[in-house]
Amino acid sequence: MPRDDSSTFAPSWYSAHESPALQRARAFERLWRAFMRARVFVALVLLALQLFLLLTADGNATVWPTALTSTYLLVTVAVMLMWTPAEHGRAPTVQWLITVGVDVAVVAALQYFQSGSSINFTPLFALPVLTAAILGPMVLGLGTAAGATLLLLADAWLHGTGLGQLDTARFLQAGLAGTGFFLVAVLAHQLASRLAREEAVSASSQAAARAQAAVNEVVIESLGVGVLVVDAHGVVRNANPAARGMLMGDNYPEGARLLLSARPSWSHLAALVEESFAVDAALETETTIEHGERPSQRLHARTKLTPAVGERGSLCVLFLEDLREVEARVRTEKLASMGRMSAAVAHEIRNPLSAITQANALLDEEVRDPAHKRLTTMIEQNAQRLSRIVDDILNVARPQPSRTDGHVPPLPLDSMVRQVTAEWMRQNSVTQTLGVHLHASQGLVSFDPEHLRRLLVNLLDNARRHASGKPASIRIITQPSGGEHLRLSIWSDGGPLEATVLKHLFEPFFSSESRSSGLGLYICRELCERYGAQIAYQRARLDQREGNEFYVLMPAVRGAALVAPPARDGGHQQSLSYPSQAAQDHEHTIVDPLRSGHPPLAAS
Question: The whole model's pTM is what?
């Protein structure tokens, strides 16, 4: 059973590091409080000793040493509880006087007035000397040692038997003790200085590590690739926002407890991590995560094990990549390469193609044999086909600004559709194959006429390529869609598209036919996006027949003056007879891929 203490997200990827100044302040505070507690302990020992002497000694014992040690205890406790830690300066300060100065004075008083007893208080001078040498500069430590030495020498002189008869042994003892205090002050200060230098080096290293950790954390948090740190029990120790979004969506709960085996949709990830630990190697796989109401996500998952650290063992770093983004990057690379080759295509193909077309036109004027006429016609048709392919490539590669700024005059949708379908029927010798249903007679769209013509022709060509050719096997339908959009639909009775084709719908250079450039539907999507429209594919039912439907939702324009669509071929327009089947009768069977979050599908 995994431990609960490791099953929540850590607040940070790296341990928090304190600043060098804060570290130094904290270290000094710890030392200061240690010395203050030592002073309290010494005061307690001295008070207990004086109470013991007072209770067990004869009548020569006095009460004042007990009072002195009691006062000393109160002062030390008050300083420890109420005084703010601060470093001693080079000159004596108030804090020095109530800490080191009080210690020296109390020890000196006890040493002088209890000199007749067998108790020697000289070693207690080491406490103030250490305090001054470690918490202050060298000058303060040496000064404290000098003060203690002078007090010991004065005590030896005062306790001499007479002015000319000094106690040599007592003076010698005071001198040796003073020398020891000087040595203690120097050594303690040197050790403290060495520790301070080591601490400065450590702080510098920690600052560099802290800066590197901050950079690493920014990089990991901003990665589009999901990164999870998982232990051997399958508990997620940490995860960046991209990984949390892939696992739990955008609104993941803060501090969520993640266990990869907790949800069925994560079972593949849990098995991958478990197998990585078992074989002690990096693994990878593709998986799908179901999100309930949200669309499922296809992910590429790969693992990498960290080296074992202490008793914790190794961890597994799990990388998750959204395959939709990978495919989008591939499409972007295709477009980039297409842009680089567009200039070469223009010079290397278009110019020779123009020469071929002109030479063929001249040759066509000279030949009279029907067989030769057929050959020149074939040359012209294929030259036109190559010219269209070149135009498609150049149009895709050329940057196209958005035209949703209101500078495009409104266009009557039904009139434009009627004109384009008449031209298309005449050019492709199609009479009964196409059925036209126009139900947006008052509808206006903000679309360039030539671009709308290109959109309709591409969709009609795509429908003709897959339709059966029977009467009314292709339908074009216009109708209002809500109060803000007009719906243009091109339906054909072709068979269902293959799954491999659906995955790449509207992508450039992808086609299910070898003779197609794979740019038709991609150009349709680019044209729609330029004018704020949306194009989508679905499998739809019309007149009790299944078929493929491409439809465009265009923003409707209200309260604008009509602009008649430009006439082509000398202004000639053809009257059409429209079947009575209404567009509202068709029944949809597949969800709009634009709304469902599925990736774009296939190009013609």
Answer: 0.40
